[in-house]
Amino acid sequence: MTDAYVRTIASMGTVVTIHVVGHGANRVDETGRKRGVDAALAWFDEVERSCSRFDPRSEVSQLSTRIGARVPVSDLLFEAVRFALAVAEESGGAFDPTVGLLLETRGFNREYRSGAVVRTALEPDDDATYRDVHLDADERTIMLARPLVLDLGAVAKGLAIDMAARELRGRSFADFAIDAGGDLYLAGRNADGKPWSVGVRHPRDHQTLFETLRVSNVAVCTSGDYERRTPGDDGGAEHHIMDPRTRVSASTAASVTVLASSAMVADALGTAAFVLGPERGLELLERDGVDGVIITPALERFATRGMRAEYLVEGRSSGFDS
């Protein structure tokens, strides 16, 4: 016999759904499922309290009020920033978590719950980069050497997904799906006892899918130029994936989907590959041992060599199967 438990909340600027499936001996009583899923979902609010630049009370926002000081931070924020800096270094600055002020000035500055506009009391420093963020692993401190705002949007949601997945596994859940605004972690099997089905959204036709994947025990994260847009200064439209080196929206990719063992890895590397574009983006993904697909604005498809044929299936679906 198979049963399922589904819970949905709003957190981190998106809708988060956890879908737990019980197969035979792996079935869990309803009280146990509720407790486990509640504990997993709590990680999203916990990560948001540490990593959201839209909340002036968050740890990451408070860093921007203490430029030049070595600020003790939680392990959660320290590890998120340490990982973001590692990806920045690996990508040659194509990924850079110090773009918070740039995003603010381009209109990506509204708190998702209240709609309130977030304005940081700092003058933008166009020379600030990830190299101006200094970590002390022994003291667990972070120091911002220049006026800047850290944006951990391409790290924090993946981190929350990973923590939620770890929580569920620690409570002996083997078959589940976590969906945070289309960033996914799929464990075990769906209700039919098969790998989970994931649709890769067509970047120009939102009613159809570009392709469908069958996956198990893997994170799948997509970065697209259609997700968040705002009018640009020149009257055109900008999306939120900025090239930190040119300070304009990256334009050589329409979407990037990355498969990795960790959602934080998939999310951050997907953003970096989007900025780098098809050729250099694939090089980055191959070098870091993850699978991925890059779709260009002209709808050309580029995939890593490791994008195995067994991932691809016929037919269309939306999100993940139950």
Tell me the number of structural domains: 2
Distance between the termini: 14 Å
Our Rg estimate from Cα atoms comes to 19 Å
Helix and strand sequence:
EEHHEHHEEHEEEEEEEEEEHHEEE
The pLDDT mean sits at 88
Structural class determined from secondary elements? alpha+beta
Describe the structure.
- The chain is α+β, with helices and mostly antiparallel strands and 322 residues long.
- The protein has two domains: 2-45 and 156-313, ApbE-like domains (T-fold, Roll), CATH 3.10.520.10; 54-151, T-fold (Orthogonal Bundle), CATH 1.10.3980.10.
- Helices cover 28% and strands 27% of the residues.
- The protein contains seven helices and 18 strands.
- It has helices at residues 30-51, 59-63, 75-90, 100-105, 153-170, 263-276, 278-287; strands at residues 2-11, 14-23, 71-72, 133-136, 141-144, 175-180, 183-187, 196-201, 209-215, 218-224, 229-231, 237-239, 242-243, 248-249, 255-260, 291-295, 301-303, 312-313.
- Strands 1-2-6-7-10-15-16-17 form an eight-stranded antiparallel β-sheet, with helices on one face. The chain has a three-stranded antiparallel β-sheet with strand order 3-5-4, with helices on one face. Strands 8-9-18 form a three-stranded antiparallel β-sheet, with no helix packed on it.
- Strand 8 (196-201) and strand 9 (209-215) form a beta hairpin.
- Helix 1 packs antiparallel against helix 5 and helix 5 runs antiparallel to helix 6 (263-276).
